[in-house]
């Protein structure tokens, strides 16, 4: 069974699900049918850039990749706020305060960095009593979302071509639209995101993205090995045949390495993700 990742460049204006559909169609041209495919962290339709898509066995690693560090370049405008906090929504609030120096922006950005409690956008995929927040918002219902603790490592403003951008590095689960909203509030005005490009997601970066809209320009070589996405975990090689059998049967075996998550190999073949606790290792996720 095939397993791996494709580092897809999602264009602006498309849902992430469309990119997943393109990958499925591409795999069919290679003879792979009825194979599981899923993206590792969605991008809003307005956004473009890095969208890692898992194939086959790699889809079992979703929980290990969802919260990895992300990097973005976000364009924004000050003086108004919309229902969706981006340019696709309806304007709800306006202000005449739109011009700020780079020094003022930098000072405001510094207040957003660190471990912060962020309120997600009303139009988001957050669950509210089992219903997506954006579905409730589209019905006209008032959506009150609880703050979520997120990590924002870097927010750097800059001007380019008469437009204003933020260079952002953050942990998984952070909403860039909310960063812009909160930046504007810090300045005493309103703000809206008008463009978004994800430049990095965990091990996947913009410079290695592939455009899968034209199958004639790509082949099976664009499929990255499973190891590529989880190389940040240390490696354990299990050599003894009896230990392999016990581990594969769900029995913990002795291991003197430090507690934590590890990649587990037999004869150079990745078997899955293991966890070491109290000098014993057992599988958390099997890939074979």
Secondary-structure map:
Elements: E1 3-10, H1 16-29, E2 37-39, E3 48-56, H2 62-65, E4 70-78, E5 80-82, E6 91-94, H3 102-110, E7 114-118, E8 127-128, E9 131-132, H4 133-138, E10 148-160, E11 163-170, H5 176-187, E12 191-201, E13 204-205, H6 226-229, E14 234-237, H7 241-248, E15 253-254, E16 260-266, E17 269-277, E18 280-286
Parallel strand pairs: 3-12, 14-16
Antiparallel strand pairs: 1-3, 2-3, 4-11, 4-12, 5-6, 7-10, 8-9, 10-11, 12-13, 15-18, 16-17, 17-18
Helix pairs in contact: 3-5
Describe the protein in words.
This protein is an alpha+beta fold and 288 residues long. It has three domains: 3-67 and 204-228, Pseudouridine synthase (2-Layer Sandwich), CATH 3.30.2350.10; 70-198, 2-Layer Sandwich (Pseudouridine synthase), CATH 3.30.2350; 234-286, PUA domain (Archaeosine Trna-guanine Transglycosylase, Chain: A, domain 4, Roll). The protein contains seven helices and 18 strands. Strands 1, 2, 3, 4, 7, 10, 11, 12 and 13 form a nine-stranded mixed beta sheet that branches. Strand 16 and strand 17 form a beta hairpin. Helix 3 (102-110) packs across helix 5 (176-187). The chain starts with a strand and ends with a strand.
- Using only CA atoms, what is the Rg? 22 Å
CATH architecture of the largest domain, please? 2-Layer Sandwich
Tell me the CATH superfamily of the largest domain: Pseudouridine synthase
CATH topology of the largest domain: Pseudouridine synthase
The residue-averaged pLDDT reads 91
Give the total of beta strands.
18
Name the helix and strand elements from N-terminus to C-terminus, one letter apiece.
Answer: EHEEHEEEHEEEHEEHEEHEHEEEE
* Share of β-strand residues: 35-45%
* Low-confidence regions: none
Q: What is the overall number of helices?
A: 7
Shape: globular
Q: In which range does the helix fraction lie?
A: 10-25%
- The class by helix and strand makeup works out as alpha+beta
At the first level of CATH, the class of the largest domain is: Alpha Beta
Taking the alpha carbons of the first and last residues, their distance comes to 9 Å
Tell me about the biggest sheet? 9 strands, mixed
